[in-house]
Write a structure and sequence with these properties.
This is DUF2993 domain-containing protein. This protein has 262 residues and is an alpha+beta fold. Helix content is 31%, strand content 42%. It contains five helices and twelve strands.
């Protein structure tokens, strides 16, 4: 026989079930609001950082497309309260700077800042330093812009077997030859990209000392140090590697303020 309850009284189990469902719904609503607030805060931070980066690039006499900024790590608001951010990624496209009147172009420069420290007071007031423990940058110098700096009509550059390869028409002893070879690519002490062409040859080149001397002079003429535009965030170039799309530049820095030019 089913148990009867006084009028107006519901079953305890059913009442508990309704309370549980209501609590779950409430928690989901609160969680949703927190997620929305968190994402909104991230968006605001990313826009502010993008503005600062654009200002820094402009102060250096360079230019680029509008930066793409991503603040990693969740939840973001917890990072704000802690004053430490896991990672901030910045992508700069079509970076150009004036170097002795010639344009050096980096189609893409990716900047990765790790363990970024910024107090809540700094974020509120805009005063104080936002410092990253480490900043790494990777970019690419297009072969077209690099060849333009060498000022040799018809010269083309590319990658061959992991080396920087060159092909160019050269007049030697009244004849036109197609010169080809590779270069050693290193980072000079001043941060420039050092190109050293020492292995050039041309099919059908006369076996004459004068012909070889002219070819060696041509190699010396295109062996230059290519100064790069100042990189943001005090990035110093550490390595340059020829890749199919261009010269890949790797740079880094430590304990870097990222909220001001320099």
């Amino acid at each position: 026989m089913a148990q009867e309850y006084p009028a107006g009284e519901t079953r305890p189990r059913r009442r508990g079930r309704k309370l549980l469902i209501g609590l779950v719904v409430l928690l989901l609503v609160v969680a949703g609001l927190l997620v929305v607030a968190d994402r909104v805060a991230v968006g605001v931070a990313e826009r502010l950082i993008a503005e600062r980066v654009s200002q820094e690039i402009s102060k250096q006499g360079a230019q680029s497309a509008e930066p793409d900024v991503e603040v990693a790590g969740t939840p973001f608001l917890t990072q704000v309260l802690d004053g430490r951010y896991e990672r901030i990624s910045i992508t700069l496209r079509d970076v150009q700077g004036s170097v002795e009147g010639d344009a050096v172009r980096l189609p893409v420069l990716d900047v990765d800042a790790r363990n970024v420290r910024a107090s809540l007071d700094t974020l509120r007031s805009g005063q104080g330093d936002v410092v990253a423990d480490t900043v790494n940058g990777t970019g690419t110098i297009s072969y077209e812009s690099l060849a333009a700096l060498l000022k040799r009509p018809g010269l083309t550059l590319g990658e061959q077997g992991g080396k920087l390869a060159v092909t160019a028409p050269v007049d030697i002893l009244g004849q036109k030859f197609t010169v080809a070879g590779t270069a050693d690519v290193t980072v000079a002490k001043n941060g420039a990209v050092a190109l050293r062409f020492s292995n050039l040859d041309a099919a059908g080149l006369p076996n004459l000392p004068l012909a070889r001397t002219i070819l060696n002079k041509y190699a010396e003429g295109i062996s230059i140090d290519v100064p790069l535009p100042d990189l943001p965030f005090q990035l110093a170039v550490r390595e340059v590697r020829p890749l199919p799309d261009g010269l890949a530049v790797t740079a880094d820095a430590k304990n870097v303020p990222i909220n001001s030019a320099g």
